[in-house]
Amino acid sequence: MSEKLSHEEFIKKAIVSLRKGDYKGIHTVYSGFNNAFKKYYDGANPIEATTKLAEEGKIIIRPVKGGVMLYLPEEAPKAPDGGEDALKKMGL
């Protein structure tokens, strides 16, 4: 049997392969990513792997209803500005 992909290779391949339509990211639960990761890596925890890659800046994680979305860094939507935009609109 051939050697398994690294976590980074697997996750990046999943983001590109599992996204639908014009979406740039994948939902970890609804896309089947979590189950596929566990099956491919014999029960390994996908949360630990994705969190590590996000900390290294290799992927972007955005929380959403029912889980998280995974994106490639160059394709991720702009991060929330922490309220700065709202304060600016309020004139504060």
Task: Give a verbal description of the structure.
The chain has 92 residues and is an alpha+beta fold. It has one domain. 39% of the residues lie in helices and 13% in strands. It has 4 helices and 3 strands. Strands 1-3-2 form a 3-stranded antiparallel sheet. A hairpin with a 2-residue loop joins strand 2 and strand 3. The radius of gyration is 16 Å and the shape is elongated.
Notable features of this structure?
92 residues, single chain, 4 helices, three-stranded antiparallel β-sheet
Question: What's the SSE blueprint?
Answer:
Layout: H1 7-18, E1 26-27, H2 33-40, H3 46-55, E2 60-64, E3 67-71, H4 84-89
Antiparallel strand pairs: 1-3, 2-3
Summary of the model, kept short:
The chain contains four helices and three strands; from the N terminus they run αβααββα.
Mean pLDDT score, rounded?
Answer: 92
Query: What's the order of the H and E elements?
Result: HEHHEEH
Number of helices: 4
Distance between the termini: 62 Å
